[in-house]
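User: My collaborator and I are trying to settle a disagreement about how two of our proteins should look. Neither of us wants to argue from intuition anymore, so we agreed to look at predicted structures for both before our next call. Could you fold the first one, then the second, and keep them clearly separated?

Assistant: That sounds like a sensible way to settle it. I'll keep them separate. The first protein:
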Amino acid sequence: MKVLMKNINKSFYGVPVLKNVNFELDSGEVHALVGENGAGKSTLMKILTGIESKNSGEIYIDGKEINVKNVIEGMKLNIAFLHQELNALPNMTIWENMFLGRYIKNKMGFLDVDQMKKIASSKLKEVGLDIDVDSLMGDIPIGLQQLIEIASALLWNKKTIILDEPTSALTAREIKILFDTINSLKKEGVSFIYITHRLEEIFTICDRVTVLRDGEIIGTRKIKDVIIEDIIKMMVGYEMTERYPKTDHKPGAVVLEINDLSKSGYYQNINFNLHQGEVLGFSGLMGSGRTEIMQTIFGIIHPDSGEIKVAGKSVKIKSPIDAKKYGIGYITENRKEEGIVLDFSVVDNMVLPNLKEVLNKVKMVDHKLEKELTKKYIDKLDIKTGDINNKIKTLSGGNQQKVVVGKWLATSPMILILDEPTRGVDVGAKYEIYEIINELKKSKVAIIMISSELPEVMGMSDRIAVMHEGKLKSILSKKDFNQEKIMTLSTGGK
């Protein structure tokens, strides 16, 4: 399927978000669409699939002009849009999710369950998954849910698949399966629009790249003709000399000690310490126990045994309220379900863990203090929001993430846990978050950073703890960092 979008314009409330955008996709091509958060990538794809309407411009499918007025018309175009936030229903089985709204019936008019299970299983195998289709979707890891959604798109014979941050929750093995699947489908003429902030990936899987900035096309290039620095410069408008800003700050005293911490089914005999002004990176495959250890430190999960010491004192952390009392902040990996309240305003989200700081003398919320606290961190983190009373769901993903960072910075934490802090965040916003991390180091904040991006965890950490199947395999010092060693340890090697 060939797609051509010509001179696409779109405004929201009089503010232009797309300006004469031209985009072309060839049959059997993987075309990367990149740009900073708010550049217009998602809006362009929503127009293509009928979720949003264009103000002006033309769209052609295989040379024929179309006018997509709504989502139902968009579904008829054989284009699948796989969003970053997956649309699975957790309490339904895999096969029920795959056939949702389009069930197969037998001659008697009853659901042909056996036939649907058989077809679902076959399509899953096409993407490298040998999995029980009767499993509940909610019991399936996020990474596998991504592959299941791709299988669902194949089920309905989609000729173009839009992948929005498809690898943000995938392990290295699952990414390889995804890329193998894409390459196989390319040979059958299936086209892909590949939206990602992980720029290294596009050199592995994409044929061309188009860069959007502030709603305008900056350029389209063949992948073989560019390097990553070229793309970054096109995205941000200037040359970025370092992807990971450096700091020469020296770590101080130990502020957190974890001794023989265990939780059945999650992790066993975990031992490590954390210093003032240090970034301790945690690396490992999905399911290795990294997040569960951090949730234990924050009081979400209760350990079976072991000890947590904060500032030299043994503590019992039974809830996030306890954790906050001991100066611990936690930025979750699951921003939209655990980090923010989508229907709350920016200001409401910012003050949630800081209610005591915005109360007046009679213990009522002081709206002036709320505004001052929110404005302080909007300015500090350069959060782009038209009005602090707007619902946070109207912000771009990168700006939502900055609000999550800001609300925990406002608690003045002694220890800050960052679980995938830059997932779904563009290269410019990533750099800003890295600079914030370095500023926190200088302020003696002790930081634990979980990241699935090896270049990131290596670029920002002073030490790296590597997990495998619930066990802490090793803690590497900076002089010992290399990708091969970390991957070997995280897959169970020595």
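The second protein, kept apart from the first:
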Amino acid sequence: MKYRLPILIFVLLLTAVGIFLIQPRIESMTSSVVKVNCDRIKQCLRAERAWPSGMEYCPKILVPETVRVRDKDGKWGYAMDIAGCSKDSIITPRFDVAEKFGNNGLAKVSRGGKWGYVNLKAEEVIPLYYDEVGDFDFGLVPVRLSNKWGYFSAQGQIVGAINFDAVSGLWRDGLSAVQVQGKWGFVDPRGDTKIQPDFDKVTEFQKGLAKVEINRRWGVINTTGAFVIEPTFDAIFSTADARLLLVNLDRKYGYYNSDGKEIISPRLVKPIQARYNSGGVQVLLNAAALTTTDSAPVTAASPDVMTNSWYFLNTASEKLRFDEDGKAQFWRNGEWFYISQAGMLLK
């Protein structure tokens, strides 16, 4: 007991000495790291035009450290903001609107009602000449001049021509939707038309398929423009399973797969959950999505309620079918039954 206090004091002294010896090294390391960052930042700022070979890291370094600044006249520009480095303006405040730099090293700016993009060297990659510019997607950005739209690349090159009535601004499966004279089609990143503008409405491509409307009827096309599902439906919806599409016709629902094969003809009064499984297509038998019938119940209460269970459909062991009114029927013990909202089996 009598040695415990001296030992404690000795340990505290050793700890203090250790901290004293280590602290300058930590500070030195920190200063060294900041100095390296500053050197790189200054090197990047001195680089002219595009970044020289071997300096591709510049945008990654400069973007996080660049902040927007506003002068006394309300004009916006950009400056560096990092401890130990110059905070001098890197882009003199001269814009009415200046948004943050993106990961591609470009920022959307506006002056005098015209829009464009500048890079970290204060160069107008996309001239402040356009009435509206969108956001970059797939390395391309939509721009509007008067009433016509087109695309620019991140290198400041016009893609195709600025002659579309509207563009989606989104690229999926290498295609973007464009409108010409009220009709929609698709172009590739070079601006070449890949699917003729023959449609009244379109959606973006997903997994190689896009929904299209002609004369108020919806169908599905692939990336070549060929119909996978003919335009015969009032509506077509995507599902949680990308391989299944929900179709609607005359207020009845059905399912098609992504190859255009009919899984359930449009005869359901309400959509049911469906999915692919190793055994084929399955449906979720959920009483809340089924229609009741006036038939008397087989039993007062069914202990084995057939709700929230998956059953195969359109296979050799089919266990579920639908009558002409779209009401679900369940196969049990050699007979077909309806299922009530309460989950009771009905003749």
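Some points you might bring to the call about the second protein. The first helix runs from residue 4 to 46. The chain has two helices and 30 strands.
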